[in-house]
Amino acid sequence: MVKPFVSIVISNYNYERFVGEAIASALSQTYDRIEVIVVDDGSRDNSKSIIESYGKDVVTVFKPNEGQSSAFNTGFAKSSGDIICFLDADDLFLPNKVAKVVDAYANEPRWWCFHRLQWVDAIARPISGCPDIPHATGRYDLRSRYLGGRCDFWAPATSGLTFSRPLLEKLLPMPQHIRITSDNYLKFSAPAFAAGFYISECLGLQRIHSANAYTSKKEDPLLRATVNVSIARGLRDTFPELTRIANRVFANAIAAEWKAGADCQELSAQLRQYLENCTVSEKIEVFVRAAYRILGPRQPSVSGLSNRPIQPTTIL
Questions:
Q1: Helices 243-260 & 280-295 angle (0-180, nearest 10)
Q2: Are residues 135 and 153 in contact, defined by beta-carbon separation less than 8 angstroms?
Q3: Side-chain half-sphere of 248: how many Cα atoms within 13 Å?
């Protein structure tokens, strides 16, 4: 039996101090049937020379700056793997990551597979605050829940996400207006269309540092509003069957705008445009949810939509 071929897609923008380590971690996998694709999204620092120093060991794409979704789309289009693993340029894979993921796909080639990440600082030292995701290792079939608007599975950030090629062919290309947190688009859509597998073991390191485009600034309500309306628009426009999930994400955007109290003309226009496509009952539900986000009890959540852990259909 031929082992699956795995593509590791690294997206980079101005991470010259990290991208070399990310590439090295991808090339150091114990699993040997891999290709490493590095998409540089118009970096203005010294990233290009660092990436080029790896020569023929990596496939490189240097493109104008168009945002993270464009980098994901480009990397996937360039890939040829049966399984695609995404890696942010400031993160690291542990050496056995791909081998563990391949094992998880062995019995179900159309799955997604997610795994935990350990938070580390800029020099890769473990730090506190890493989300305590309570899901057990096993198979999760969440399709009916997600199509019904209940997205209550806590998924990791980009570097903990892997997908089979047939599933990504359905999900990508994603709308290019999603410039950051493009992983949320995948996390909210993949479980709606396929069963998946979760590995509770940490197989990667997620850096938390001052230059994170979102993680280090996620308490900024205006940024949260902008990000959430972007994801909601992308989900609703691409997958009408995910309108209920999109509306829940949009309610978070409304709540964040209220919290910010900001007069941002561009954001306000995006919010109005989204609401124009909602029915009266949808608008009522959105505003009720937004009000609850502001006035209800605080419920910390990895996804921002639920804090209730669910159990796998099969534990291995």
A1: 50
A2: yes
A3: 15
Residue 296: CB atoms within 10 A of its CB come to: 10
- The sign of the CA dihedral 120, 104, 137, 303 is positive
User: Whole-prediction pTM value?
Assistant: 0.92
pLDDT in tens, 188-215: 999 999 999 999 999 999 999 887 655 5
CA–CA separation, 23 and 187 (whole Å): 24
Helix (H) or strand (E) holding 72: helix 68-78
What gap in Å lies between CA 213 and CA 15, rounded to an integer?
11
Instruction: Answer whether residue 114 shows pLDDT above 60.
Output: yes
Q: What is the largest CA-CA distance in the chain?
A: 60
Domain 6-210 has CATH 3.90.550.10: yes
**What does DSSP say about strands 34-41 and 59-63: parallel, antiparallel, or unpaired?**
parallel
Whole-number Å distance between alpha carbons of 111 and 96: 19
